[in-house]
Amino acid sequence: MPANVSRRRFLSAVTAGGVAAAAGWAASRAPKRKALVAITLDLEMSAEYPKRGMTEWNYRKGDLDADTKKYAVAAAKVAKDRGGLIHFFAVGRTLEQEDVGWLKDLAAAGHPVGNHTYDHVNLLATKPEDIQFRFKRAPWLIRGKTVAEVIEDNIATTTLALKERCGITPNGFRTPGGFRDGLRGREDLQKLLLKQGFTWVSSLYPAHGCGKPKEEPGDAVYDDIVKAQAAAQPFAYPTGLIEVPMSPVSDVNAFRTHYWKLDWFLKAIRLAVGEAIKTGGCFDFLAHPSCLVVEDPALEAVKLICDLVKDAGEKAAVVGLDTVAARVKE
Ligand SMILES: [Zn+2]
Predict the structure, then answer these.
(1) What separation in Å is there between the alpha carbon of 226 and the centre of ligand 1?
(2) What are the pLDDT digits (tens) for 211-224?
(3) Each residue of 227-246: pLDDT tens digit?
(4) Which of 130, 217, 267, 326 fits as disulfide partner to 221, beta carbons 3.0 to 4.6 Å?
(5) pTM above 0.85, yes or no
(6) Ligand 1 centroid vs 176 CA: distance in angstroms?
């Protein structure tokens, strides 16, 4: 073999190898997509809070007590002081309360407020008595409407109430309760939301283990929560409506259902947010001031999330769910 050929082969092999190595280097060094981390608080009363056995809230979810409102305002301040924001979801009935100045102030400070229905109704209900406790106790309120009509009305009235009482245009819609399949297969509901002007919904809460109530979760539970983050990434339904799932673990699931201690909850958050930062994914923290005011009075969860994002520098940002939804179209 002539020397020049072997030299050419040698050079091309070196170049090919060099290109491959450079590509590998670039892939490992290329900035991953920024992790989008949202902190969302549903403004509603939670059964079993502030004391176990208090379930009357189920009938008046939007009748916020003073402590719950104070916590929401304090959480917003903590997030804002750390350069972030909180995405709130309001129940329409809250707009009937005497004072809504605090909610107006939150919106004016740049915190998005979404629609969480008027009475905290179940969008998947098929029978009138399953729509919401309030309608079960007072079925005359339905006045012959179909389940779909009651739900449609409940969402539209909330949009109206937010606008008329607070001048707020709702930023997105969250279903009361999370569904493990979201609104998959429910094109009727997807279209209902699109018709009411929503481009995205937050309805999916993926299945995951939580261990036995009152028992400290083991590695398997934490692993499962981290694994579930992949199922909590935003996507578009066939109708075009975008889903922005809630990311495990929620406060009511951890504290109310499984009697977790705050440290266990914070550990799960640390791992889940870490996973989002590692993968350049999205994380949608779901909690309720009415629950956290009892379980996490010093706002440690909100502080922790903001600090984890801050420590990640360019790799993560605290955003509203509308920003998470927009990623689907990138
Ligand atoms: Zn809710």
Answers:
(1) 23
(2) 999 999 999 999 99
(3) 999 999 999 999 999 999 99
(4) 217
(5) yes
(6) 4
